[in-house]
Design goal:
- InterPro entries: FA_synthesis, Phospholipid_synth_PlsX-like.
- Homodimer. Probably interacts with PlsY.
- It comes from Planifilum fulgidum.
- By secondary structure, this protein is an alpha/beta fold.
- The protein is built from 11 helices and 12 strands.
- Helix 1 packs across helix 10, helix 3 packs across helix 5 and helix 6 packs across helix 11.
- The two termini are about 35 Å apart.
């Protein structure tokens, strides 16, 4: 397998990307890894020598986190992010990972990699933590702020397939984010989406309220990108606030410090369950090639897990399965 990475994307690039690749190259020795970025920047980071299965693909430009996505993609055709998407389209690599500008990655994916036939809009699908330890795949969380009912139905199908093939959920439960669980609740968009999703060959469990997601009421949660982004960022903020507050409380007095020592193993497990670094990244489902969006704050560990995720994406044939199911539905 051949996997490319945007060496210049993310808050801690390029060092975190290179460090993550060192670990991945050692773990999967039969795979090849391509770091895309300026040679003069990347080579000094491997002063101790390149792993035999890592190479650099020179790209003189890169897209910053604050650049306007579409303009940047059209103007910087030799950027590491654009070159990576082109490599996937041309079949030169099996998957591409970037922790860079999310909007630019989506734009480059659409312009240079292309969509799966039958999919109107790709969706960004990260894992949302749950108290069950399984997590919930949420799509969309911002690739498309606005959506139509048939877009949500496509998200449901793609999410179900990805959850089964990559995450290992048997007969994954698919829910639709709503303000109530009753079938007749919600906007006209949600009501129509409910009707369309119910007809799909997936395990649809109906409407799901946001307060129940942490309790694992579904394996896949479908929503428009605007609602999904608010849900995701609110949850990240709450999780960080809880952990920060616990640290303050457990260091406040000697007795609290003693209690913290007893609770430390459990707290570490809880921290892992809500840590995005354990999941690595979010697939852009609906594109014609495997593209993974790693978190902008990804460190080497997160990059390693993003590589693991990309490998499963390719090995388990997610895109052929989505294409096959779409054709089956179209044929009736």
């Amino acid at each position: 397998m051949r996997i490319a990475l945007d060496a210049m994307g993310g808050d801690h690039a390029p060092k975190a990307i290179c460090d993550g690749i060192r670990s991945a190259a050692q773990e999967w020795r039969d795979d090849e890894f391509v770091l895309i970025g300026p040679e003069e920047v990347l080579k000094p980071l491997f002063a101790d020598g390149f792993p035999s299965n890592v190479q650099i693909l020179h790209a003189a430009e890169w897209i910053g986190p604050d650049e306007e996505p579409v303009k940047a993609v059209r103007r910087k055709k030799e950027s590491s992010l654009v070159v990576g998407c082109q490599q996937v389209k041309e079949g030169k690599v099996d998957a591409f990972i970037s922790a860079g500008n999310t909007g630019a990655l989506m734009a480059a994916g659409l312009l240079y990699t292309g969509r799966i036939p039958g999919i109107d809009r790709p969706a960004l699908a990260p894992m949302f933590p749950s108290l069950t330890g399984r997590g919930t795949l949420v799509l969309d969380v911002g690739a498309n702020p606005e959506a139509k009912a048939h877009h949500l139905a496509q998200y449901a199908l793609m999410g179900s397939i990805y959850s089964e093939k990559v995450l290992g959920f048997e007969n994954p439960r698919v829910g639709l984010l709503n303000i109530g669980t009753e079938e007749g609740k919600g906007t006209e968009l949600i009501k129509e989406a409910y009707r369309l999703i119910r007809e799909l060959p997936i395990h649809f469990v109906g409407n799901v309220e946001s307060r129940d997601i942490l309790h694992g009421v579904c394996d896949v949660l479908v929503c428009d990108g605007f609602s999904g982004n608010i849900l995701l960022k609110t949850s990240e903020g709450v999780a960080k606030a809880i952990m920060d507050r616990l640290k303050q409380e457990f260091t406040r007095t000697l007795w609290n410090k003693m209690a913290a020592a007893v609770l430390k193993p459990g707290l570490k497990r809880f921290a892992r369950e809500i840590n995005y670094k354990e999941h690595g990244g979010a697939p852009l489902l609906g594109l014609s090639g495997p593209i993974i969006k790693a978190h902008g704050s990804s460190d080497a560990k997160a990059i390693f897990h993003a590589v693991r995720q990309a490998r499963l994406f390719v090995e388990r044939g997610v895109i052929p399965r989505i294409t096959e199911d779409l054709h089956r539905i179209e044929r009736g």
